[in-house]
Design a protein that fits this description.
Layout lengths: L1 H30 L9 H9 L4 H8 L7 H13 L3 H27 L1 H12 L2 H6 L6 H20 L3 H15 L5 H21 L8 H33 L8 H12 L2 H15 L17 H24 L12 H16 L4 H22 L6 H11 L5 E5 L4 H8 L6 E2 L18 E6 L3 H10 L9 E3 L7 E6 L1 H12 L1
Parallel strand pairs: 1-2, 1-3
Antiparallel strand pairs: 3-5, 4-5
Length: about 500
């Protein structure tokens, strides 16, 4: 008896130490070198929206396509830790580590400590999750809130205490306010809970005995809390539908690219899917007649399946019949769900061998993508292009940005109100007047195709074939900075006058 207790205590200590190692690795991969890449368009928008008053923040985000929770976090942290690149990304990095811990807790509840550690290790080493945990956007928040919501749902189905019912209502609301895709997850999990409630009532259980009903009521509170912003998103969705959206149609090449972007390896994706299937199948892999075919609580398992695959299916169907919305980073909350199911499946087959083998195989298959993510992968290089301009500009110089949607990124690095003007189309680009001004004219062109770039150069009366500076950015132009010296402007205006 004493030996069993000792072994159990040793197992717990070993499990705790392994969890600490996993969390330390997750923190190192996310927190070190947070400023390696430049702040890009979307991050700069988050910064811009979160810099003023809370009312201004809400008004600004209300005209965008997502809820405001991440911006509110930045609004609270910027006055405390500043708005440098590392400071803006720090909340996301910390939330990325929290997501790894929550994955362990959810996996432990679903399939035991080994499965929880396996899933947590897989998420800690995931290039996809690491990348979006180092971005000052809402994706790491979405994953963490989604996992907290999943954990609370599983806890309530297992034992509906007042604490976990309260946490489910809270985490559900936070999840909904993290990203619009949370609505798809909420609908999938909520539908399954409603089915369990109906089955409980049909089987003769009273309403007070149904944990599923309690879960539904807690989710109802979350939904009511989200209704004001849901109304704003509904209005915004109609305008987006009219104007079109930038996401491509989800054909087979798109889906393959998306799957690789999430998993880091197509082979790993099929392996995870296979193991998730083994988690579901009613087969006794241990060949022990004393053990049930499936050791998992079927309700918890079904909830995890809905959490993982529901948003994918709903987003894909919406993309087919309405307009494309399926995109890899929006599924960041579903990704840990697949890892949980696969880890549970690996644990079913052989808890002493397969989980460790899964981690090793995953690391081998994704190592090229992991190394690329940590050392080479970049975002549009606004820091470099702004630095090139600032190093050469004089007080009397003038800068025009084409196109204006990128203004927050340029404003972030220039940090001077009124330091540039914007042009939305080539027709809006006009050379500065005042031939007597001694300064140079500058044109920064971003995110264009060759035709737009040529039209912009012509509209600005640029004679130089090559830009003054060019850094990485999307579109044929990259981020291209052109300089028109004062004497060239004077000659051009003289020719136009004559």
């Amino acid at each position: 008896m004493l030996q069993t207790t000792g072994e159990s205590r040793s197992t717990r200590i070993a499990g705790t130490l392994l969890l600490v190692v996993v969390l330390a690795a997750a923190a190192a991969l996310r927190l070190i070198d947070l400023d390696r890449t430049s702040i890009w368009y979307d991050e700069a928008v988050s910064w811009s929206q979160s810099n003023g008053s809370l009312l201004a923040l809400l008004e600004s985000v209300a005209t965008d396509n997502y809820p405001p929770l991440h911006n509110i976090i930045l609004w609270m942290t910027i006055p405390v830790i500043g708005d440098g690149e590392t400071a803006l990304r720090l909340p996301s990095a910390l939330l990325g580590v929290v997501a790894v811990l929550l994955t362990f807790l959810a996996g432990k509840l679903l399939a035991g400590r080994i499965a929880g550690l396996t899933a947590a290790a897989l998420l800690a080493l995931s290039p996809f999750h690491i990348w979006y945990s180092t971005e000052a956007r809402m994706y790491a928040l979405q994953a963490a809130c989604g996992l907290a919501y999943l954990l609370a749902t599983l806890k309530v189905l297992n034992r509906a205490s007042a604490l976990w019912l309260t946490l489910l209502a809270l985490f559900g609301a936070l999840f909904l306010y993290s990203h619009v895709y949370a609505i798809l997850t909420f609908a999938s999990v909520g539908t399954v809970c409603a089915f369990f409630t109906l089955r409980d009532l049909i089987s003769g259980r009273s309403a007070g005995q149904s944990n599923a009903l309690r879960a539904c009521l807690a989710m109802g509170i979350s939904t009511v809390a989200f209704l004001p912003w849901l109304y704003l998103l509904t209005i915004r969705a109609s305008s987006v539908a009219e104007a079109g959206f930038w996401i491509a149609f989800p054909d087979l090449p798109f889906l393959k690219t998306m799957i690789f972007g999430i998993t880091g390896s197509l082979l790993l994706f099929w392996l995870l899917l296979f193991l998730a299937l083994l988690c579901i199948l009613p087969v006794n892999f241990q060949h022990d007649p004393q053990k049930p075919p499936s050791p998992f609580d079927p309700r918890m398992l079904t909830i995890c399946i809905a959490f993982t695959f529901g948003p994918v299916v709903l987003a894909y169907l919406y993309s087919l019949f309405v307009q494309p919305i399926l995109f890899d980073r929006y599924l960041i909350a579903s990704w840990p769900g697949l890892l949980l199911l696969a880890s549970a499946g690996a644990n079913r087959v052989s808890p002493k061998v397969v989980p460790a083998a899964l981690i090793a195989v995953s690391l081998v298959l994704t190592f090229p993508e992991l190394r690329f993510t940590l050392t080479e992968k970049v975002r549009p290089e606004w820091r470099g292009i702004a630095g090139a301009y600032l190093s050469e500009r004089s007080e009397d110089d003038r800068l025009m940005l084409y196109k204006g949607f990128a203004a927050p990124a340029l404003a972030y690095y220039l940090r001077a109100p009124g330091s540039f003007i914007t042009a939305e189309t080539a027709e809006d680009i006009v050379p500065y007047e005042r031939a007597s001004r001694a300064g140079n004219d500058w044109l920064l062109v971003v995110h264009t195709n060759p035709q737009e770039l040529a039209a912009a150069r012509q509209a600005f009366d640029l004679e130089a074939d090559e830009p003054f500076a060019r850094t990485f950015g999307w579109g044929a132009s990259g981020l291209s900075l052109f300089r028109k010296p004062a004497q060239d402007r004077a000659e051009t205006m003289s020719e136009n006058h004559n």
